[in-house]
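Morning. Coffee machine broken again, so started the prediction first thing and wrote up yesterday's gels while waiting. Chain of 213 residues, entered below exactly as on the submission form.
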Amino acid sequence: MEYITVALAKGRLAEMTTDLLEKAGLDVHELREKSRKLVFTDEKNKFKFILVKASDVPTYVEYGAADIGVVGKDTLLEAGKDLYEMINLGFGTCRMAVAGPKELEGKLDSIHNMRVATKYTEIAKNYYHLVKKQSVEIIKLHGSVELAPIVGLSEVIVDIVESGKTLKENGLVVLEEVCDLSARFVVNRVSMKMESKRILALVAKIKELLAKE
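Came back before lunch.
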């Protein structure tokens, strides 16, 4: 029997997924051990787990280096990979939003040549070009995007909002909601054909567990 490989996003998401996989009957004791290892196995059920950076999960799954991946919807939208999104796991919930100074509330549509700072350029492009049908300049940042409107680099930002505390501390507010985000269970398209029985059995078990919560 071949191993089914599951790519997990390092950090809190991997920990929450590990709990779920354990409830679904997989042996995850290796994953719980504090080590620098990146590959773990469940010999009994023939599953392999790999820990990768969140932004790399869709790539591992698309290219078949992993059959299954668990990653945030924001990462999936940004990566734009061709995967089967099987389950909304419902944890790691937050939202993608447009934020800026409070005085811009209700005025966004009247700003010409608006500049939008973000780490999530694909999500921002899709939102403004496809949803809002608005022409904007998108500025890619890697660090604290909240700084951009404060120093005049941009009028607004597109970023993940959990509690809104960081925005508040920097004098910004949510101006528009872009989309809700949470962890998703995704599957490689070829793996779905080759290992459909085992993958669908795991999907069914996880759905059953989530329904009880």
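The mean pLDDT is 94. Going to sketch it on the whiteboard this afternoon.
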